[in-house]
Amino acid sequence: MIGPLSAAKSARNEILLLILGFAVLVVVGASSVWIAGRNAVFNAQLAQTSELKSHILLTLSVAQNAETGQRGFLLTNDEGYLTPYETALAAWEPRIRRLAELVGPTGPQHDRASALAAALKIKMDELAETVALQRAGKFSEAHAVVETDRGRDAMLEVRRIVTEMRAYEDDQFAKRSGDAAWGAKLQLAVVIIGLLVAAALAYGAQVIVRRQTRTLKAAQDELSRANAGLEAAVAERTSELTTANDEIQRFAYIVSHDLRAPLVNVMGFTSELDAARRVLKDQIDALIEASPGSVGEEARLAVDEDLPEAIGFIRASTTKMDRLINAILKLSREGRRVVTPESVSIRDVAEQIAATLHQQTQSADAEIVVEPGTPPLVTDRFSIEQIFQNLIENAVKYLDRSRPGRIVVRGRRVGAQVEYMIEDNGRGIDAKDHERVFELFRRAGAQDQPGEGLGLAFVRASVRRLGGVITLTSNPGQGSTFHLTFPAVFRVQSESRAA
Amino acid sequence: MSASNQRSVVIVMIEDDEGHARLIEKNVRRAGVNNEIRHFADGTSALSYLKSPEVRENGPMLILLDLNLPDMTGIDILTILKGDDRLRRAPVIVLTTTDDKVEIQRCYDLGCNVYITKPVDYDTFATAIRQLGLFLSVMQVPDA
């Protein structure tokens, strides 16, 4: 399935695609801006070309108007015909200046404009000369000036230059139009390519996302399969453990039970033996009384001392064995008890236990404090009462008599669990005995109190049955704290309990 | 069983532990019970005796039953006894080491008349058996 390496690779691919997409956007955007700029320039140039063209025409018309007025005046000698000439005379110099401005300081058009200005000057000078001669009444001289063809040549020159300038501008216009069209085509191409690349990137991204979704889904399926397997494994283990536990419980029950039957015989026949001894003793006593010396000293001692001693030891041992067997029976019976969870106020439980221990605590100059914040628990009432009973009793039992005793019961909720502490300032438990005290028939410290070593073994078995954990912290000579952790709500496992 | 009294009650003791059987017999006798006691150490022989025609014709009887037997449990025997037309009237006293509440209930449900847990402490045991003997000496057993 998907490994971390390929996951990193696909993440890199995604980032690469994203970067490429942005790059395409930037290229398309930049080209648009560039084309727009070019268009603006082109439009400005177009406007300038149009103005220049109209100015060239205006300049030509100024020359023509001036010539028309001069011709009319020369022919008719009527001043009235001079009006176009007069207008042109006033207009030609500003026109030339404006033209010079429009063509700029350099370039072929500037040279042509200068040539045009020169030709126009010659023409206007010739016109002015003829008009002046005419006005002075020197008609023939005026005609002679005209006939030099100076004016005609200048006029031809003007026309030629104007035509040339217009042609040049038209040429420029066509060229710029071509450029603009090419730019538009370029932009179209860029946009189309950009769109295509973007589409390709989008498709690629979608493919990658789809593939990733597929691998994710596969991983998820795998995970849920693994989870299901895990659950099955846990269930299997749990049932195995439950079976093993039940077997141990049954074993303990059967063993303790079967041990009891021979013990009844041992104890019974020991008593019978004792009864028989008493009969013998009576007989021997009678014999000794009747005839002293008829019974040997050894026989008397055997009946009077050896037999009672032996019987006494047998009895003591069987009594102890009986207690031990009963302890195992009690443990196994508790393990077979059906647990019924209910809400139990641990505070009330502890306070009730404290009340029943009032006599002992008073004589030991001790107090039992149950903190008000001790949280309740949903669990088996009987078992939890026995657990606290044992632990609090132990705390009272093993107080240090040299100082006033103080036993504190408190608890707090930790997530889905509840933690209780039973803290005393008693004699404490040596670190090496922290595990040992929980073992069956084992005790720790000075053996100055009665007990079988059952209490804590029983407590630990019960705590475990309620799904809890018990631990111990202690400083020898300063006190011990027993920590109990239970699930806040005990759930009965759906296991088949062997009857 | 005295030949003169054909109606004398026979005590059938089904007990696999010879020692227990002996102790029970001793203490029953000490209580002054002189009835015949027939002892069986396993369920099979006990049942074959109880089902024999000889027993069916032979007067009333009382059964002392241990629950822990090598070949079958006392519960099985109790079930068979209480399912038998003739034998079901015979009082059954379960005398065993088991003090499990569930077991005790089951025995009474199946029709056991008295359930006694054998005390491990011998004095208590002896006392219990002697009291049982006294009880046996006064109780009425239905005729066959």
From TrEMBL, chain A:
Annotated TM spans: 15-36, 186-205
Catalytic activity as recorded in UniProt: ATP + protein L-histidine = ADP + protein N-phospho-L-histidine
Domain Histidine kinase: 254-490
Record keywords: Kinase, Membrane, Phosphoprotein, Transferase, Transmembrane, Transmembrane helix
EC number annotated for this UniProt entry: 2.7.13.3
The species this protein was found in: Hansschlegelia plantiphila
Top-level taxon in the UniProt lineage: Bacteria
UniProt name for this protein: histidine kinase
CDD domains noted in UniProt: HisKA, HK9-like_sensor
InterPro entries: BphY/WalK/GraS-like, CHASE3, HATPase_C_sf, HATPase_dom, His_kinase_dom, HisK_dim/P_dom, HisK_dim/P_sf, Sig_transdc_His_kin-like_C
Record-linked SUPFAM superfamilies: ATPase domain of HSP90 chaperone/DNA topoisomerase II/histidine kinase, Homodimeric domain of signal transducing histidine kinase
Pfam family, one: CHASE3
Coiled coil: none
Any one GO MF annotation of this record: protein kinase activator activity
GO BP: osmosensory signaling via phosphorelay pathway
UniProtKB/TrEMBL annotation, chain B:
Any Pfam family matching the protein: Response_reg
The protein's name in its UniProt record: Response regulator
Phosphoprotein found in the keyword field: yes
InterPro entries: CheY-like_superfamily, Sig_transdc_resp-reg_receiver, TCS_response_regulator
Domain spans labelled Response regulatory: 10-133
GO biological process, one term: phosphorelay signal transduction system
UniProt keyword annotations, A-Z: Phosphoprotein
PTM-bearing positions, type 4-aspartylphosphate: D66
Source organism (scientific name): Hansschlegelia plantiphila
